[in-house]
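Q: A reviewer asked whether we had any structural model of the full assembly, not just the individual parts. We don't, so I'm hoping you can provide one. Inputs are below.
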Amino acid sequence: MMPWWKQTWIVARHELSDAVRSRRAAVMMVLYVAGAVTSINGFINVLQKLELQIAQTLGVEALSSAGAVTDTLWKSRPFRNMLMSLVGDRSVAMDLLSIPPIALIYGWVAFTFVPMLVMLVTPARVAEEIGSGAVRFVVPRCTRSAWCAGKVAGQSALVILALILSVAGAWTVARLRLPGMDGWAVAQAMMMLAGKTWIYAFAFVGLAVGIAQFHRSPNQATALGFIAWMVLGIVGIMCHFYAGPGIRQIWLVIELIIPQGHRMDLWRMDGAYLLSGCAFLASLGMCYAAVGYAYFSRRDV
Amino acid sequence: MNLALELTGVTKSYGRRKALDGLNLRVPAGSLFGLVGSNGAGKTTAMSVVSGIVQPDGGVVDLLESGAFDPVRHAGRVTVLPQDALLPRESRVREILGFYAELQGVPPADIGPMVGRLLQTVHLADRADSAIRTLSHGMARRVTLVQAFLGDPDLVLLDEPMSGLDPREAQNARHFLASRRAGQTVVISSHNLHEIERMCDRVAVVEKGRTLLQDTMDGITGRRHVIRYRLMPASWDLAKLEARLPDMILERSPSGDALECRYRGDLATVNAVILGFLLESKVGVLQVYPGDELEHAYLNSTGVPVQPGA
Amino acid sequence: MKAAFWIPFALLAGLVLGGLGPRQSMRRERDELERLRKAVRSERPARTDFGNMVDFLRFPGTAGPATAATGTVRVADQPDASGVDVTPVATGTTERVRGGRTNLNMVSFQERIEAASELWRIRSDMVRSGFLRSARLTPEQTVQFDVLVEAMNIRLKDRIAEWTEVLEQAESVSPETGVRMINDLSEVLVLTYDEMDRTLSPEWRQNAGTSFDLGSLIDPAVAMPLTKVEPKFRDRARMRRTDPVWNTQSGGAPVSVAP
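A: Here is a predicted structure for the entire assembly that you could use as a starting point for your response.
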C-alpha cells in the first residue's frame, strides 16, 4: 500500500505539470508577471522624474539614468514620514525602509495581486476536475484526502512558479533600467518577498481548494472564490476599525482567522512576527482546504 | 465459489428517487459479468457504489472479500471506467496513463512499457503524446478503457465500454476483453444486450434498482427451452401443429413469418416434429435457432411481452 | 487519517488562543501611540503625505532636522524605537522660508546644518554619480576620488574648528574675519583640485567638463563647530538688518561661513 504522502506527492506533481499547460493558468501567470514588470517599470519612470526634479531644485547636473540617489531618497526623513503615514505603523515602516525600494515595489505588487491569481486559477482547476468527472479516474486509486492535499500542494507550486517568473521579470527590468542597482541585494530582497508572498498565497490556495470542493462548475467556483476574497478583505478592514475591548474582542479573533490579518506580520523583519504569521497562514490554508474536504470526502463525485 | 464482488441489499437515493432499492449481486472471481438493464435501472449507480465514487445509503458491499471499497486497501486492485467521465483535457495520453499507473502503485520502470503495450492494443500508439483535447470521442473512450486495465487489477468495472466506438474498434475491444488474464474479474454494464451476450459468461438483469435475474449466460438464455423459426410468409394452420405437440406453447407472428415454441423434453424430438409439419404444409424455413436470446430473456424478465420474431 | 484531519484545526485553535492575548495588548499599545501621535500632531500644522513629498522636494527650507550628521542613515539605529515620533518636526515650517531665504532668527544654526546634511547626501550622491560617469574613472581612481573628497571635508572641519576657537576669543565678528575665513577654507578646495590633477587620469577635466564643482561635495556638517559661536553671528545679522549698508545686499549672508 502506497503511503499517503507519496500519493499526495504524485497528485501534486501531476497537478503542477497539468496546470502549467492549461490555458487559463498560463494566461493568468503571464498577466501576473506582466503586472509585476509593468509596475517596476512605472516605478522607475516615477523615480527618474523625481530625481530629475530634485536635480533641478538643487541646481546640479541631471542624471540620465534613475536610481543614483534612490537609497538616499529612501532613507531621508520626509520619505520616512510619508511611508509611515501610508503604512500606519512605525515599526513596520522602519522594516520596510531596510528593503531596497525597487524590491519593495515588487513585493507590494506581488502581495496585492497574488490572491487574485490564485482565485482565478485554483477554484476553476479543482471544480473542473470534479465537474468533468476526471476525478472519478483518481479517487479509486488514492484517498480523497491525498487528492485534496495534492491539489493544494500542486497549486501552491504553481504560485511558486509564477512568483519566480515575476521576480525574474521584475529584476531584469530593474537591471536594465537602473544600471547602478545592487543586483544581488535586490535579487535577494525580491526572492525573500516572493517567499513571503507564497506563504500569504498558501492561505488563499487552501481557501480556493476548499471552496472548489463544494462545486462542479468552474465558473461558479471562480466566482465564489472571488467573492470570498473580497468578503475577507472587507472583514479585514472591519476588524481593523472595530476591534477593541469587551465584546469587540470578537473582531480580534476574526482577524486572526483571515489571511489579511497576518499580512503585516510578513512585512516585518522580526523573526517572531514572521514565524507567527507563517504558522497562522499555513494553518489557515490547511483549515480552509480541510473544511472543503470534510464535504468532499462524503460527496458523490 | 470465490466472489470478486458481492452486493447485498444496497440502497441509494438521489433525493426522492431511489436509484438502488436493495440491489443484490454476486460476481464470481474470474468471470466476465454483464450487468444489463434499462435507462435509469441503477447500473451506473451500482458501478459507482462499488468503486467508491458514490456513497451508498445502506446495504453491504464486499469487494474481493475485503469489505467495501477503500482506496487504501483496494487501490490498484479495483479499477473503473466511469460512463460519462472525461479525462483532463490538457493532459497528454502517455502522461495521464502514467499518472494513473503510478498512483495505483505500478513500479515506475514498468509504467512506460505497460502503457505502450496497452495503447498498442487499442490502436492508439501513434497518439501517445497527443493532448486529450485533440482526440476524437472514440479515441478518448479507448484511452479510458486502457486506464481501467493499468496494473492488471483483480476487478475491473466497465460502464458502457463500447459506447462511442466504431464497429472495428468495438470488435477489437471485445477481443481485448476476451483476452484478459485468468482470474481477473470484469464487470460490464451495457445497454447493448447483443454485446453482453457475446462477451459475458454471467449476467444480471437490474431494473428499478433491484436484481431481477442473475445467472450464467447459458442459464439465462436457455432456461425457458425455446426453439424459434424464421419462415417464409405463408398461410398455414397453427391448430394442427398444436394438436401434434399438446404440452407445448406455440406462438405464431401475425404475418406468419415467425414461430416460437416453448417446450419440455428433448430439443431434437420437438424440432423434428415441428420441421416435419412445416415441410408438409409447404412452409419455407429460413432459419432455426434454439434457446432464447438475452434480449428476450431480459424483456420477459421485465414483464414486457415479446412479439415472436421481434 | 481521520485524526490527522483535525490537526490543522487544533493548530489554528492553539495559535488563536496563544496569539489573542499578545495581539490584544499590542493593539492597546498601538491605540495609545496613535492617541499620543494625534496629540503631537494637533500641536503643529497639519501635514499630509503629499505635504511630506513637497517638503522633500523643497528641501532644505521645509524639511525637519536629520539625526545623523554624516554617512548613511541606518534606520534600525533610530533612537525613537518606542515608535512615537515626538520630535517637533519642522517647527516654524512656514516661518523658515521667506522668499526662498532662511530667517536666521527663527532657526538655530545647528538645525540648519543638520537639515543641510540631509540635502548634502542627496546632492553629493548626484554630483558624484554624474562626475564618475562623465570623468570615466577606473575603480581605483574612483576610490582615490572618494578619499580626496573625504580628506577635503576633514580638512575643512579642522580649519573651521580652528576658526571657531578664534571667533570664540574675539568679541565680535568683523567683515575682515569673515573674508579671511573664506579665503582659508577656499585653499582647501584648491588643494583638492590640485590633488585630483595629480592622482586621477589627465583627461578627467576634459571628460568632466566645466560644470563640475567640488563645492557640491562639501558636507555641511563640517560647519558644526560654528554652532558654538552662533550668538555672534546673530548679532551680526541683527546689525545687518538695522544697517542700511547691509540691507542693500541680498539677505542670507551668514550662510557664507560655509563656502
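A: Points you may want to mention in the reply: Chain A touches chain C through 52 residues (CB under 8 Å). Chain A has a mean pLDDT of 89.
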